[in-house]
Specification:
It is built from two helices and eight strands; from the N terminus they run βαββββαβββ. By secondary structure, it is mainly beta. It has a single domain, classed as Roll (Mannose-Binding Protein A, Chain A), CATH 3.10.100. A hairpin with a 5-residue loop joins strand 3 and strand 4.
């Protein structure tokens, strides 16, 4: 399953599922992509289909492994990943080094176990208000689910996860 960033940083007011869908299509990707965010309807840990959570690796846009599987992100360790493996945007830029993302922090709105934090998810990702807060993770920690609170006015990285694996029928 591919983990890919939106092409630009975003405040806490983001129509992330729609953006993930649209940018994946524009990039020629045929699978469904969902925001790597807890929402008012769903915990982050359940965004990927149950059947795909254990046996498929989580990879970047070039197929390099970030996590052995979806479940391994939510063991409570904060989603430790190899910072030497780039995380790419849909247009192919490395968010860890590209200046388009001056703040190397990702929004997630979740606990270390991928459960939504209702008080820390920018009002279900509908506000960029300076007084509202969202849970996010500075990538220099090497974790996708580090537990830091930031104002929703910040412009951070938003990740998208391929939420269902479809094998190539010709393959």
């Amino acid at each position: 399953l591919h983990l890919v960033a939106l092409n630009l940083p975003s405040s806490g007011d983001v129509r992330a599922d729609f953006q993930c869908f649209k940018q994946a299509q524009l990039a020629g990707l045929t699978s469904t992509y969902r925001a790597f965010l807890s929402s008012h309807l769903q915990d982050l840990a359940t965004v990927v289909r149950k059947t795909d959570r254990h046996h498929l690796p989580i990879v970047n846009l070039k197929g390099e492994i970030l996590f052995s599987n979806w479940e391994s992100l939510f063991d409570g360790s904060g989603g430790q990943f190899n910072t030497h493996v780039p995380i790419y945007s849909f247009d192919g830029r490395n968010v860890l080094t590209d200046p388009s993302w001056p703040q190397k922090v990702i929004w997630h709105g979740s606990t270390a176990h991928g459960v939504r934090l209702v008080s820390n998810y920018c009002e279900a990702w509908h506000t960029a208000d300076m007084g509202a807060v969202g849970q996010a993770s500075p990538l220099d920690t090497g974790k996708l689910l580090d537990q830091k609170v930031y104002s929703c006015s910040n412009q951070f990285i938003v990740l998208c996860i391929e939420n269902s694996f479809v094998s190539d029928p010709q393959g």
